[in-house]
Structures are given as structure tokens and as C-alpha cells.
Amino acid sequence: MTSEKSPDPLAPITNALATADQVLVSHTRGLSADLVARLHYTGGSLAQVSGAILKLETQVIATALVLFHRFHLLAGFLEHSIDDTVKGCLYIATMLCEVPVNPRDIVAAVEAACDDPLATGFKSIIRRKPASFGPQFLNALYKAQLQVLTTLGFDMHVVVPYTLCLEYLQAMNISEASDRALLGQRAWNYLNDMMKSRICIFQQPNAMAVTALWLASRETEVDLLDGERWWTIFDVDTEDMGHILVLLRESKAIAISERDRLVKGLEPTLRVEDVTARINEEATA
């Protein structure tokens, strides 16, 4: 009789992460590794802007972001438009989080967010009337929803880092309420930046939460546990934190260059035809 395997105490706060083979395949679909990273960022930003228009809670938006990045790790950008995938992921996330939203409202929000998907502020976002979107738009959303579900094998388990971050901050026993509030807000902002990129499919939520707190601590000059290696308490090592910092630096560089493109009047890369145009642009650069 074989002995039962002891349950992993961290299982409830972990996600399925990208494997090396999956990352390699995602970089061999006719797109450069740099363009793949840029498209992930653009889609992540579009999802956040759309979620803000819908006034969704952070938990819902973050769930959609994880699903988006997971899907496009396995499915190519030349076969699936970013805007449709975002619609499908937001729709799934609202159901997973039990936040009922009319599909037409999701379509209207994403279509509006496409005006300024990177939130540059240089172009006004014009709200659309949900009733103006006919069956073809809803069919595209339902098709994207099914593609995400089937591609991910109907595995919709998602853990996001925001609640963990607040719980970890509470565990620090910081005496000054103003310091706690400042740290919490700065860490929250760093998590928002992380979620736009592929960090959430490369690193676990606890590592993201800890790194966000570490960055917030440095920025605000508020010491956490007297500067000791407090991150080890939350089962995070400096290698994971270093990886997140490298990816976050890459993400910020992408944000700057992609926003510069929009400011120059170039169209955002949101649909299959836009991706094809970017490939041709890279080839002639």
C-alpha cells in the first residue's frame, strides 16, 4: 500500500506557470521574442483600461489578465486578435468572480478602450452604447470565450497577488497607519504594472506580492522588519525577486516605446492584421 503524498501547503496560493517549452514555442510562431512581449503588454493594458471602464474590481481584472497571458502563451497572435481575446477573458473572469456583466457591456468597453489601449491620455476614449453592437460582436466574444476555455483545458484556477500583498503587509506590524497606507498603495501600483506583462505566468503570486512590497519599501524608505531578509518568511527567494525585477524593467521599457508609437500617430497593435503589419515593419527596419 503506497503512502499518500502530503498536500502542498502553498497549493491554494499558487498558479500553473509557463514551462520553458511553452515559452520556446510561443517565440517560434513567426514573431520575434521582443514583439511577443510587446503584444502581451498591449493586451494586458487593454484589459486593464477596459476593466476600468466597466468599473470592475481589481480581482476580476487581474483574473482576466492571467487568463489572457496564459492563452497567448499557447495560442498565436497571428491567429487570435488581442481585442477579441480580451473580451473573452473579461467575460470568463466576471463569471469566475461571480460578478454579472452583460456581454454587450464588455464589448462596448473593449471597443472604447481600443481608442487608447495604453492609457496615454493623448486620445480621448469615446464611450460606446452597448445596444449598438449587434450579433456579430457577441458571436466574436462567445467564440473567444470558447477558444480560451478549450485552449486552457477548462483549467480556470487563478490566484492573483493583491490580497496576498495586503495580508503580508498586515503581518509586518507597521506601527504608523500612514506608512501602511503609503506602502500598500505603492505596492498595489507595482502589482498593476506586473499584471500587464507576462510576469504573472512566470512567477507565483506570493513572489509578486513580496517584490511589490520590497519595491514600495525602497521607494518610500519605510523599513520592513528592520531590513531583515523578511521575504524568506513568505517562501520567496532573491532569485525569484530578481527575475521579476528584470521582467518589470523590460515591461516599463516596452510601455515607453509603445506609447511613443501611439503619440506619433501609429495605430495600436490589437488585431491580427495589425500584428502582420508589425512583422513587416520589423523586417524593413
Automatic annotation (TrEMBL):
InterPro entries associated with the record: Cyclin-like_sf, Cyclin/Ssn8
Q: What is this protein called?
A: Cyclin-like protein
Q: Which organism does this sequence originate in? A: Myxozyma melibiosi
